[in-house]
Each structure stands twice: as C-alpha cells, then as structure tokens.
C-alpha cells in the first residue's frame, strides 16, 4: 500500500468526528483529527454570544444521549473534566390552563401525572427502559440483525408509526401533547412514518440517564473527548478548512464528519457515477432559527414545574404542533410555532453572572430561511411566562442561513444533516451494503448523515470507525 504518514485522518471534530478518531486511536493507530474552525466541537461549542459572562451553547444544549448512549458511556470522560448536571425536571410542556405535563427521570413519576394514561405509558415505556442497553445498540446503529429480535420487533411496531398515530392512542390531550413535543425534535411533520421513534428514544433516554446539561457549556463535552483522544496519542489540528482531498497527508483511511454535499466538494472526483448520483439526491430537511437571551432573572413561567425544567416545549396541543410542523415543511412560517427552550443556567448557575440567567430557544423554519422571527419566539415564551420580555438584557439571533454559514454541514440550516424520515433512517446517505463506505477505497463518511442520524451521541462516528477497522486494519 506504500508509506503513509497516518493510518487514518478524520476531517471534522463534531461528536461523530471525535468518536471516530477516538475509536481508531484506541486500537493504537496513528490518527490525525482536523477541524476547520479554531475551536473543537462542531455542534458542541459554547461562546459569549450576548454579554460578557453569559455562556451560550451555539448549537446543542441539552444532551439526552450523553449519559445513555453506549459510546459515551464507555469512556472515562469525568477523568477529563466532564461534569453532567441534571435539572430537577427533565422537560416541561406548558398548556393553556397554566399547568405543565412533564418528563421526569423517574418512569413512575412521569406516568403518575398522566391520569387515565398512567398504565398505557408504563406499558409503552417500561420495556424500552428495562431493555435499554440491548435496544440502544440496535437502534443507535446501522441496519443489522438485532441482538434481541423479539424486543426490537416490539419496539419497532411502535417506533415506526407516525407520531400522530401513537399520540392519539392516549386518552388525554395532556399526554398527547407531551408525546408531540418529544416527537417534534425530529424536525419533520409528525405525520411522517417513524416519527414515534424519536419520541420513544428521547423519553427512554431520559428515564435511563436523564437529560443533562454540561457544566460550563456543551464545549465541555467536546473538550473532554479531545483531551481523551490526545491522551491516547492522537494528533489534532484546528483552523484547517479542508477544501480538497489532495491537501491531506498520505493515509490509509480518511473519514469525513461532513454533509454529503461537503464530501462531494472535497472528494467527489474519486467517486463512482452511481455514488455521486446518490449523494446528489440526498435530502436535507428544515432549518432552525435560534435566539439566545441574556436575562436579568429566571423565566417567570406560570407553571411551577416549568420553572424547574431544563427543557421547555412550547406550541400547545398535539394538533397545534402537528399543524405548525406540517406548514413549515411546505415553506409556510407559523405564528404559533413549536419552540424548544433550554434553561441551562438553572442547573448550571456558572453560565451567567450571579442572579442572572441564560436562555436558549429555537424553532423550525423552512430550509434556508432568513426571516427574522425573534419577536415570534418572544411572544411564544410570553404566552406562558408573562413579564419575560422585561427580563431581557441582550439577544443574539441566528437564522437558518446563519447556521449554514457557521457550519457548512448544516445545509439550509438543517442541524440533523439530512431528513431523518423512514426513507433515510437506515439508508442515509445512500443505499449501500455499508452506509459509511464511499465508492472509493479508503474514504468514509462518519457524520450525522449516516445511521443512526442526528443528535449528540457519537454513534455514527463509532460505527464508521468500526467499519474502517474491519475493512483496512
């Protein structure tokens, strides 16, 4: 094969790039990790976006899978500075009557608040929680024969349903709203097949490991992963935005933590016509619009439980959330959007000066949208927290186009790096024997554009690295 400077090069240091680099380095290989920005992390970065002393997460904020995904759980990240902090209430979903329906760490506490749906919720979630380890290894990876096929088949019968179907099987509108708020994390219409999977995984992860925030900001997770990688002998270079495959040193394998579009730009001349055609047909989803707030105090939610929640889902009932997401999918902005709010400074007071708070809020928008809807987001919060506006000290907004400028892998502002629907659930980014292999020997994709898709879990990178080890070493 000739002399190579590295066994493997990983381009991109998001959670999946870091996971791939670590998995390869653990095998004693010579690994170089490259990051285009000056700061490691991709979607796990924390910056003073508003005022001095206010630490805001640029992209990922709450980490349901940081404490429950198999790869992160396998690493001694606490020894490298990682501290996960757990809010008292994982997620609150305020309703029109001023109350909230909530996700708690405890399965039974969550079920107990659901009245007539208590038994159904336990029947739905208990098998997922009790069999989490085996199920997670199957649904957080590529399509393969499952370790426990009967358990996975039971999960799949529910998970593959549209979220609207499963939500409407509950007796109470409150329970349906809770489920809708969970499923809407998927950034697609709730009528799409397999959207129930998103809700089931997020709720299961919450009951198993919580929905923690990272002390000091999401950057802390990236820093801990990088520190572990370097301690194992890996090499890291920041500030190198790779534009062409020819720039890279000689290596047996090159893995890209990028979108398929970026992969084509950098290495497309190496690919077959069929693979190039497949990547060009890859579908990207809706964008996001995010607002970061520096606040003079905590959010004055009408609901007492919302005041203790790390995450708050706004948008109302199942029908209202479903209507908003369906309209956005068609390019129509909503006046009553689903807004996902994160209150990291409740669990981590060091995110802001004493007595002050940070708030992170985003909603879905049409792909590539550059309309400023800051006021819409503020109004949604004000509905459930009268007086919120008076607490605002500073604001930083990012539209979908801003997100793509910040990270070119977020095509049109799509932070999931591709629609995660039934058609691209396991075939992302192309229908192949291995979703991680390109058509060119030694070139691999390890980003969220591969199974299991979006989220801070590192499993795309882990499985891509395992494929590399199987193929080449």
Automatic annotation (TrEMBL):
The domain of life is Bacteria
Taken from the record, one Pfam family name reads NAD_binding_8
In terms of InterPro entries, this protein maps to: FAD/NAD-bd_sf (IPR036188)
Q: Where is the signal peptide?
A: none
Q: What is this protein called?
A: Phytoene dehydrogenase-related protein
Q: Which organism is it from?
A: Cyclobacterium xiamenense
